[in-house]
Write a structure and sequence with these properties.
- By secondary structure, the chain is an alpha+beta fold.
- Helix content is 46%, strand content 15%.
- It has 17 helices and 16 strands.
- The strands form 4 sheets. Strands 9-10-11-12-8-14-16 form a 7-stranded antiparallel beta sheet, with helices on both faces. Strands 2-1-3-4-5 form a 5-stranded mixed beta sheet, sandwiched between helices. The chain has a two-stranded antiparallel sheet with strand order 6-7.
- α8 links the parallel β3 and β4.
């Protein structure tokens, strides 16, 4: 099978499979919440509950098997390639393998769900029977589609001149272009954040006559874009003229004076061709770099579609942040959060400890009113007194937020505290700030417990989220967040990290299970609530957010009632 077609089909399938997994997890959270409300009297698990859960998994199996076939169908159709008899046999084998694999995984997950809730009546039947029977119809439906596609007349592929692969409607297929695009993506992965906000990961490659002249990534030089570093710091004017630039993000068209936008810089340096991995996700400027370059006579093309998907996946957090900040209302653009909050955050100092926290997996918690007012606290002394009197206590754990009264930092608009527990177990580092505007920003590294390795304890999630809601409720009691509060939780740099809740000293028994890890680099959960609701439902809201975070790690059947008991034990009566 043509490897380009296979790679493209695999990328389409993995994207669809991940989306199906997210759909499944979201549906399971809603089902579990409904079951928890319905079974408040500790009623035993019923056959109806099992059937409802099984239907969700059957739908997931159907989506995955359909996606496996349709990914190949789309890849062949878009590239104009022809599937040989052997290719068709391989596709059929893969389709059947996916069906069998997803059935096994689904039956196992349902068994885990059953085990966590006690025995079922023997008359209900096994999970395997539910999944096998439920997914058979979907299997036959996809198989029928495959047979129709296989029976279509197939044209003989045209030979491609000069050993080059033709352009095919989803990006360049020249071998060199693909190789250099992959190098740009590799460079982009080295990008370092400038601050705590989501930033794009950008890599730039300057190529001439088949040779890489220079390469750079965002953050390689502080506050400089990748194209600037690759061109201005590493190349003379003569070398750059006529070169091809491979960049993972559309070059910018606006920069604060005296800086020159990257697109204009490419024009000035007489670049001959630019190959882009992703257009800017900001709708206000999307496509402007492409247009400026084209108007200057520079050839502009895109990465192959499968590589564009890689770039977008790598920048998912940045893309999500752009979408969250803007929503279309008619012809207007509305920002969710007032820009004054962002301006305040830019002025907060970056300490050595804060940079150390950012360099590792960490929590980022952001509490603020939805309307900006500079003096919700009359002065910083009121901020200080509030923090001193409102610290949230957690049984057998660190208070929230943690600080030393001797080292509190005081500015004209904010106070801040930072502390590092470098000795003992667990190790922890955190820094927070509270502004007169009612904006609270908290960065904290994950608790470092040797026995857990790189795993995140489920109770750390519950403690952090509940403590933040408790602290926000105390802000609401003071009228600081009126009339509505926004509370955002981000778990950053968590791709591949597992969730755990050991039940014995050796960790042999785990309440979470062995296959619950995060597929995303960043997990973001946000709630916007009135201050009345925040005060009245702070514990419920916290538990809902904790469940949503667990869901992002693949833990879709947490013991809700046990978590409620842990919450009450660790924070006291509500």
């Amino acid at each position: 099978m043509d490897q380009d077609v296979k790679k493209y089909a695999d990328s389409l399938y993995e994207s669809a499979r991940m989306e199906s997994g997210r759909t499944l997890r979201d549906a399971k959270v809603k089902l579990l919440q409904a079951m928890a409300a319905r079974n408040s009297g500790n009623l035993p698990l019923s056959g109806f509950d099992l059937q409802a859960m099984a239907r969700l998994y059957v739908a997931h199996v159907d989506r995955c098997t359909t996606a496996r076939f349709e990914s190949y169908q789309q890849a062949y159709d878009e590239t104009g390639r022809v599937a040989s008899d052997q290719d068709l046999a391989d596709i059929l084998d893969e389709f059947k393998a996916v069906w069998a694999q997803e059935k096994r995984h689904s039956a196992s997950a349902i068994d885990q769900f059953i085990t966590s809730r006690g025995p079922l009546p023997s008359s209900i039947g096994s999970s395997k029977v539910f999944v096998d029977g439920g997914s058979a119809e979907g299997h036959d439906r996809v198989l029928a589609k495959f047979k129709i596609w296989r029976a279509k007349p197939r044209k003989v592929a045209l030979a491609v001149a000069n050993g080059k692969k033709k352009a095919d409607g989803y990006g360049l297929k020249d071998d060199d272009d693909r190789r250099f695009a992959l190098l740009a993506i590799e460079e982009a992965r080295k990008s370092a954040p400038e601050d705590e906000r989501p930033h794009p990961k950008v890599g730039a490659l300057i190529v001439k006559d088949g040779h890489v002249l220079s390469k750079a990534h965002r953050g390689e030089k502080p506050k400089s874009h990748a194209e600037y570093v690759a061109l201005e710091d590493k190349l003379s004017d003569d070398l750059a003229a006529g070169a091809t630039v491979y960049t993972t993000l559309e070059p910018c068209t606006t920069r604060r004076h005296p800086k020159i936008p990257c697109a204009q810089r490419l024009v000035d340096r007489k670049i001959g061709r630019v190959v882009i991995g992703m257009l800017d996700p900001n709708p206000d400027i999307r496509g402007r770099g492409d247009q400026l370059l084209s108007d200057a006579g520079i050839e502009v093309q895109l990465f192959p579609r499968d590589l564009r998907a890689q770039v977008e996946e790598m920048n998912r957090d940045f893309i999500r942040a752009q979408k969250q900040r803007q929503t279309a209302v008619g012809s207007e653009t509305v920002e969710y959060d007032p820009k004054e909050f962002w301006e305040q955050r830019k002025k907060l100092p970056e300490t050595e400890l804060l940079r150390a926290i950012w360099s590792k997996p960490h929590w980022h918690v952001w509490i603020r009113p939805t309307e900006f007012k500079r003096a919700r606290f009359q002065d910083v002394e009121q901020c200080r007194q509030f923090v001193l009197s409102s610290e949230v206590r957690i049984r057998d754990w660190f208070p929230y937020p943690s600080f030393s009264t001797e080292t509190l930092e005081v500015d004209t608009e904010w106070i801040a505290g930072e502390i590092e527990h470098a000795s003992g177990t667990p190790k922890r580092a955190e820094r927070w700030s509270l502004s007169r505007s009612g904006q609270f920003v908290h960065n904290r590294g994950f608790d470092e417990i040797p026995q857990l390795g790189n795993r995140i304890h489920a109770l750390e999630v519950l403690d952090t989220v509940t403590a933040a809601f408790e602290f926000a409720a105390r802000m609401a009691d003071r009228g600081v967040l009126r009339p509505k509060a926004a509370i955002t939780f981000e778990l950053r740099q968590v791709a591949g990290r597992s969730l755990t809740w050991p039940q014995d000293a050796f960790g042999y028994i785990d309440a979470v299970g062995r296959n619950c890890w995060c597929q995303d680099e960043t997990v973001t959960v946000e709630r916007r609530v009135t201050t009345d609701e925040l005060r009245a439902r702070k514990r419920e809201l916290a538990l809902e957010v904790a469940l949503e975070i667990y869901n992002k790690f693949g833990w879709t059947e947490p013991p809700v009632e046990r978590l409620e008991r842990e919450q009450a034990k660790r924070f006291g009566s509500n």
